[in-house]
Structures are given as structure tokens and as C-alpha cells.
DNA sequence: CACTCCCGCCAATTA
DNA sequence: TAATTGGCGGGAGTG
């Protein structure tokens, strides 16, 4: 392509041709360039005349308009062509320019060519979506600005939004570190959680109230009264005392961006209209909002929306209301993860859990002030690149909150609910999905490091297929992304010589063999309920199988049935795919089985589907699921699928257990998008029942499990295995019951850092041959868990790292010699702070907030659940 | 004309 | 104090 371009370009800009750029870029960006669109990027490289930005600057100075325009055009062209339908025009345009004199060029590049969205795409094209952990990609603002031919100011617009999603972090002046999408799902989860806290109630309302106006008026009032909510929100408002300091921050594009994203994540329809968003984001009450302010907000939202669109997270649509057609954006990014969390947490969040989380989230998001988070460092903490942060000038923001938001969100929801027609915007529709697929087998990031001694049977080959890079990647099969599909089709990518499978960080899998002991007891009635939520696919495998897997791909017939059964299994699988994340409404009584059946009308199923739709590439999930299926899973699924056996999930499970000797079993949850951020590991021994076969159901948490951030998993092999059985399990809601012991590994750990978690005991990384077995779980899992956790399942939400941290069970190996991470990269402190439970945080404020909200939250949650259950959309 | 949103002034923050 | 960031809103491009 480069050549091509040059040939094309050469005539135009002789000067520009310099190879150097290429080298530069390479240096900057790791090899992996994303997708085709990236190519576009490549062009820019060639374009850049000078290796040094300065030079460029000079040149541009010399012949400002012309040069810039040319550059821009060139840069843009590729993108436009690929993305936009206008192509024809643009092409002509380009051609003309090329051939003709500069004069033509002067016809300024259409405004579109200068759009922030386009610029952002160019920007993104320069960096891999999933950079290797080893490579640190630093972004020099000056350089990027010069290369892209724009003023720095514009780069800030992009970077700020990216930073809000933790795709980049500020390392130093003029320097940002590119993280890529590795943490995106986690970030989104967090945002979702935070969003739920802030806006969750609204959702409920919307459901109830159909009348928009009603909301505006009365609802607003009602909501306001909840003073407690306020506390949750850290966003300081201008009025606050600290206003001066905070004011800027408050309005910051970053925060706006996060809030904006939250709205999407909270919204059932995933559609948010600009005006509503603007209203919500405006601090003042809606009524007071003056027009100018509103206008300004909208402008900003466009800026943010452009970037998000470039990221492939949203797309433009129009909603038709009574009043007319309004511009809106629809979330097309991963959704499930969020759902999962909910589910996991259980509907019934204990009062504690929710608040806590909320608090944590809040901190991150909002508060810059308090902790060192100034720049959202909290999120970044784990990342290698992290560097100096700006000082936080002021204190904690005043507790403030925007009631408005709530009601705005309500409104939004209502609107959505009310039935608006949504039209995709033609403009954006063409946008290609930004995600690059990089599930490269070889990629270090995705590969699990082999332990010196393969302790565990590693994930079977089957598994590998499962893991895809974050939800998106999983979708590879999607037609749009042929390349991906190919790779993925292959089942597991094993790294040569390595016992472990490579998988994208997001993917989940797992397993360890555990002992079986009480398993049966574990199957609880709850399982059924929970089952719904619970992981879709779980399988119990005989030990033999495990071994096989470990060493070899699943192809081997470890389990008789496993290998074959494709069709039926697939179907089941698909459903199962849905990650826990999906909001599966917990339905109280429903047995999972129904869900398990494909096509069932179960609400959960519906949701799942919906999500899929939302996903950029709908097809992907299925494929992913297929791939992902393990033999075990397949078996299970097959069983589930079997019409013959519709036994309730619990029974089902138990049955299996009975049939098969308990031995080390593996359970893995598919890494669907929802799950992407977290991985669950269940010991086989654990209550199988808990993990209902039913695909969509969430497993009951009663089972001891370990949740690990996907990132963590990716980097190293996990060992876990709480073999103990938990007695409790009867948590009706399926939330993780107290019984379940859960350990979270912190994402904070650098991906590279190996983490081992065992419910019972610690395992040294290298050593654990059979950690699970060896370690005995204390009788009561609760011990390990923080009180909070024990109390409320909800607290345990998968996603929230918050919960993590309980020292006892968790082992963090901070710096394994093996990992190259720089000391900086590892920042336990941050993480801890970030994730800590409120109690651990010790932040009084947060704590208070939590408490205050607890009751409320719980109620809201339930409401939500109900709603979700009933309305599949 | 309504939407979008580019552009760049200039203030807040940092270094 | 100089430089970096980034809020903000005028007003232009687009349909």
C-alpha cells in the first residue's frame, strides 16, 4: 500500500516522501497494526514528510494551507474511502488534487475530512488495539499532531476521551501511553456500575412511567430528595466550595465522556439522545439550564461522540418521538460485561455491596480529587506505562450530585422505552468496526505463560478458541472480519511447547480440578435460579480429560460425548455463550433449563440476543461460542440441550456429578463479551449444581470460585482451586451467596504478574501442581471473604475489582522475576485503593455514602432486575 | 434553517 | 514565567 500511495502521492508531494516516517511509526506503534483501516494510517506515515515533527512544523509554516491540506487529505482519504460511502466523491476529489495543481487542493477539504471522528480514526489506526504488554507505546502529542496535520488542541480532544476509557494514560507532559483495548471491558464495567448507581433508579422509573413529561416534572422532584445519592457522586459541582479547583475537572471532557458512556450502559435501549445527555450532563437543574449552556454541552457531546464512534462504541441514530426526530447515539460496543456483573452480584445485592462498588467506581470516575486518581490513575495503575500524574489540586470534590442526571436518565430511558423509532444514521452507519482483531496466537499478551511445570492441566485446546480478545474480538467470525474468523476457527491456538493455551485476555476459561467432595450438597435449589444467571457453559470433566487437555488439544476424546455433537451443542452453546454479563434478569423461579434450550423464550435468552445485536458484529458471538466450547462444555451442553433431559439444572448437575466421578473438573465460563472482563474459575468439585448447565444462567455463586480479571489471566496461568465445598448455597437469588468464597485477583496486578488464587490456600505460582486439591478450604469460605462480600453477593460482582483485595486468600506475586515489568508499572497501592472495599478504603466519605445508599440501591437493583426480566426489549 | 462541529481564543494548570 | 491543557462558544460547513 505504501508503494501504492506513494506512486499516487508522489507527484503531489515530493518532499513528503520520506521513509523515515515509517520507521518512526513502527517505533511508536508496535507492529500490530490493526485492521485494514489501519492501513490508512500507514499512509499517513509515508506522508509525513519529516521524521521530525519540527520539520513538519517548519514546512507547514512555510506553506501553511496548502501543505496541510494536502496532508490532511491524504490522510483522510484512506479512511474516508474505507469508511464512508461518499467514497466516490472523495476519490475524485483526491484524484483531482493529486493530478491537478495544488489549487484544487485548496478547495478545502470538506469539513468532513477534518472531522474529529476522522482524525480520531487516524489516530487510532496508529496504534494496535491490543498492544503487547511488553511494548510500551508512548504517544507524543506533538508528534501525533504534526503527523496527523492538526493542531494539538484537537489531539487533546481525542486523547481526553480515550483517557476516560483508559485506552491511554498520561505519562508526562506531552506524553501519553497507549494501552489499547485490553482494559476496555473492565473500564466499561466500572462505568456501568457507576452508572447504575447514579442513574440506575432512573431506569426503573422509565419502566414504570411511560410518560416522558411525567418524568421531567415529577420524577425530578422525587429523585432529588434522595440526598444520599448525591454523596455517591463525587463530581463536584461548581457551586461547591472547591469549585474553582474542581470546576475545570468537573466539566472536563473526560468526565463528560465517562458519564456519557455510563448513560449508554445504563440505558436499556442503549440509545441516548443528545439533548437528554446534555441535560443530564449539565450540572444545573434542567430548568435552569440556559440555552447557551445547553448548546455548549451539546457541542462537547458531539466531540465525544465522534471519538466514541471512531472507537466503534456507538453509532449515530435518530430517534423519532412525538416531537420529531432527534439525533441520538446508540451503543454498539460490548454490553454484556456489565450485565454480568449485575447478575453475578445477584440481584439482591446486599446493601453493602452495591454501595461499595458504587463508591469505588465513583472515585475513579469522578473524583479526581481524592486520591491520586487525578487522571483516573486508578484505572491505569496497573498499566505499565503509568507515569507521573498531575497533581491534584484540590481536595475531594464536594459531594454533589446531580439529581438531574438521574432524572435525565430516567427520561432517557423512558424515551427509549416509549417506543421511539430508531434510525441509523446514514452517515455513521458506514463506519467500519474499529476493532482490530488481534487474537494472534503468538501474541504474548494473550498467551498464558507456561508455568515451568505445568501444574494444571491447562486449558484444553478447545478452550482456546474461546478466548478472544475482548468481546469484540470474539466476534471475529463475523463476516466483516474474515481474518479473525480464520484464526479463530482454529480451535485453540496453542503456543508451541507451551502447555497453556493462548487466549485473549478477555476470555475466560478455566479450570482446575478440584476435589470433589461435597459437591452434591452444593447443588442447591438456588442453583436453578441462579443457574439462569450462571455461567452458560460449564463442564465437568473427568480427570483424565483434564490431563489430556493440558497436554493436548481437546480433539482427543477425553470425554466420550464431547467431541461430537456439534450441532446441538452449538446451539446450546450459543446461548450459553452469553456471558454472565448479560443482564439476565434473575428470575426467581424460573428454571434455567428452559433457557438452556435454544430459542427458548426465556427472558434471559432474549436479553442475550439483544446484546448480541448490539454488538458490532452479531455473528461473532456465535462463532466464538462455538469455538470456545470445550469438550466438557459441549458435553454438558449437549446434555442440557437434550430435550430428553430437561431436569432442573440442579438435578441435572447433580446427576452429572453422580455419573461421573468427581475428579478434577473444569468449569469454564465462556468469555462472551459480558464476561470478558472477568474470568471465573470454578473448581470442578464445587457445586456443579451451582453451575447449572443451563447456558444462560448464572451459576450460583455458592460454588467457590475465583474470579480473575481477564487481563490477569491472559498474562499468566491461574491456579486456583478451592476444592472445598460450600455448604451454603441456598441463596435464592442466585447472587453469590455468602457461602461462595470468592477471590478476586486484582487487575491491578500487571498483566504480567502471575496471580494465584486459591480459596483455601496459597499456591506458589510455579509450584502448584494440584493446588486445588492440596489446599483445603477452610470450612467456611466466608472467612476469606471480607465481611462485605460475605454479606452480599452483589458485592462480589465479578467486575468489580473492588472486592478484591482480601488478603487472605489472594496471593499476589508482584514481581515475578519473569516479568519484565518496570517497577512503575506495578502499583499495588493504586489498585488497592481503587479496588478496596469501602471499608478497606477507609475513606469515610465513601463509606458514608455507601451506607446511605445501601438500602436504596438494593431496592433499585431489584426493581431493575424485575424490569429487565420482564422486558427483553 | 437545523445540525454538526471546526477552530482557535484564552484561562486554568503544570512544569 | 513559560508551556501545556483544555473549556468554550462563535460561526462556518452540510444537507
UniProtKB/TrEMBL annotation:
Pfam families assigned to the protein according to its UniProt record, in alphabetical order: WHD_E2F_TDP (PF02319)
UniProt GO MF annotations: DNA-binding transcription factor activity, RNA polymerase II-specific; RNA polymerase II cis-regulatory region sequence-specific DNA binding
CC annotations in GO: RNA polymerase II transcription regulator complex
All residue ranges annotated as the E2F/DP family winged-helix DNA-binding domain in the record: 111-180, 248-333
Stretches the record annotates as Disordered: 1-49, 63-91, 379-404, 523-605, 618-657, 837-873
Keyword annotations from UniProtKB, A to Z: Activator, Cell cycle, DNA-binding, Nucleus, Repressor, Transcription, Transcription regulation
Domain of life: Eukaryota
Coiled-coil annotated spans: none
Family: Belongs to the E2F/DP family.
Protein name per its UniProtKB record: Transcription factor E2F7
Gene (UniProt): E2f7
